[in-house]
Amino acid sequence: MLKVDNIHIAYGGIKALRGVSLNVQQGEIVTIIGANGAGKSTLLNTISGFLKPSRGTVSFRGKALPKRPDLIVRDGICHVPEGRMVFANLSVEDNLLMGAFLRKNRKAVAEELEQVYQIFPRLAERAQQSAGTLSGGEQQMLAMGRALMTDGDLVLMDEPSLGLAPLLVNTVFEIIGKIHDLGKTILLVEQNAFKALAVADRAYVLEQGKIVKEGPACDIAADPAVKAAYLGAESRAGG
Amino acid sequence: MAQFLQQIVNGLSIGSVYALMAVGYSLVYSIMNFSNFAHGGVIMFGAYFGFFAMTLLKLPFLAAFALSFTGTALLALLIERIAYKPLRERRAPFLYFIISAMGASIFLENIVIATIGPTFRTYPKVFSRTAIALGSIAVGRLDLIMFFVSAISLALLVLFIEKTKMGKAIQASAYNMKAAALMGVNTDQIVMIVFILGGILAGIAGVFFGMKYTVYPQIGNITTKSFVAAVFGGLGSLPGAVLGSVLLGIIETMVAGYLSSQFRDLIAFVILIAVLVFRPSGIMGKISEEKA
């Protein structure tokens, strides 16, 4: 469904991505794990069209992606950005409706809104509140709900559990499962490698702008080097 | 008391025109985070467009008025395409935008001086100069029309921004351009719409300003005061821009009426400095660090 082929990205003199290739098949949950600064967000921002690779291509359903971010959304890729980026100056409901900006079918949008409220009952309770008044966890729900409203088939998620309390982290991962059950394909970038590998089908390990390992999530989770680097404390804590 | 009310009425009238200008500054600031100093030049062109439409083309007032704000909308858009779009594409620092804006402003002023000349020109008479008596106060017809047209224009703008899908997209982009793009909003188009809206209001303000005073190449400098009003109200906030403008208009006419008109501009800039020192976010502005 998504094919990233040998992309290179440099900011100034720093090479953030050095020949990254990966693919995501329809219906999969694929995770990219890696430390801070490994290039995970850069990769998602390149797929979404905010960064132009100096080399390499990204194709979606066999076609090269358009150049502008809004056209990429139209093609069916939605992106839950790092730091949530909800519109704090708009109400919760207006945030969700912004997600449906490109959609013309009002009935389908109304149904989608109902569905999002079913997945995130908290958002329904706070529909008329300004999004700026939500807690961090609620803002993450809103960012996810807003992305669902775009009706994209591929959902990119950038660190959805970042900065959330452990209990909320569990909720976020449950929701990722629910979104997958809706038939969405998911590309998940996470620092919480333990949780991400538990939910994913396949995984890539990104280090200093390069993919150093790839494979089924369970194999990656069992890999001694990965365990040492990314799962150390968490695998003990999680049992 | 009569004089006080009279000053309030005069202040509201001039304040409403400041509001048209200030909203143009605020709209662009809310989306692009810089103060578009070329806006004054666009307002000046609005005054000239209306003047020449009436004198050279002999158009009736309403047609000249429409021609003027159509022209300024296109001019504002053209400035965006030439002076700002290349900077946006390169993600240039805000300072570059301000420098580009000042360059555009100087260019607009000088091209008028070089082609049309520096002389002051007076609009042909459109409205009768006899004032309408409201009890003990007298309201000029032009002042009354200025106030109502400004109020209606601003109300339409608010309606557009609050009630339409595109308006919501403008609000979303003002808060976070990247997140708006992730919703499928073409942010380049949003920037264009914002410049067109600011340009329309600039044309309306330019014609009124030209009619109330005169038309000359430095008329754009007066709009610096509408910028003061926008800062006073809180840059980036539309209600703030309107409130700041009306307050500034009233303060100015009060100063001119009770002290001396020579103190008028002095007071306006003292207010600007005081706001910047004591409340940089203005009356209703959002507090933000990375904006210039």
Task: Give your account of this protein's structure.
The complex is a heterodimer of chains A (239) and B (292). By secondary structure, chain A is an alpha/beta fold. Chain A has a single domain (2-237), classed as Rossmann fold, CATH 3.40.50.300. Chain A has helices at 40-47, 69-75, 92-99, 106-119, 121-125, 136-149, 166-181, 193-199, 217-222, 224-237; strands spanning 2-11, 14-24, 29-33, 55-60, 63-64, 77-80, 154-158, 185-190, 202-207, 210-216. A six-stranded mixed beta sheet of chain A has the order 6-7-8-3-9-10, with helices on both faces. The radius of gyration of chain A is 17 Å and the shape is globular. Chain A starts with a strand and ends with a helix. By secondary structure, chain B is mainly α. Chain B is globular, with a radius of gyration of 19 Å. Classes of the chains: A alpha/beta (239), B mainly alpha (292). Chains A and B meet through helix 2 and helix 3 of A and helix 6 and helix 7 of B.
Key traits:
heterodimer, A: 239 residues, alpha/beta, Rossmann fold, six-stranded mixed sheet, four-stranded antiparallel sheet, 10 helices, 41% helix, disordered C terminus, B: 292 residues, mainly alpha, ABC transporter involved in vitamin B12 uptake, BtuC, two-stranded antiparallel sheet, 2 strands, 74% helix, 2% strand, globular
Topology:
The complex is a heterodimer of chains A (239) and B (292).
Chain A: E1 2-11, E2 14-24, E3 29-33, H1 40-47, E4 55-60, E5 63-64, H2 69-75, E6 77-80, H3 92-99, H4 106-119, H5 121-125, H6 136-149, E7 154-158, H7 166-181, E8 185-190, H8 193-199, E9 202-207, E10 210-216, H9 217-222, H10 224-237
Parallel strand pairs in A: 3-8, 3-9, 6-7, 7-8
Antiparallel strand pairs in A: 1-2, 1-4, 4-5, 9-10
Chain B: H1 2-32, H2 39-55, H3 61-89, H4 94-115, E1 132-134, E2 137-139, H5 141-163, H6 165-175, H7 177-182, H8 187-212, H9 219-233, H10 238-259, H11 264-278
Helix pairs in contact in B: 1-5, 1-8, 1-9, 1-10, 2-3, 2-4, 2-8, 2-9, 3-4, 3-8, 5-6, 5-8, 6-8, 9-10, 9-11, 10-11
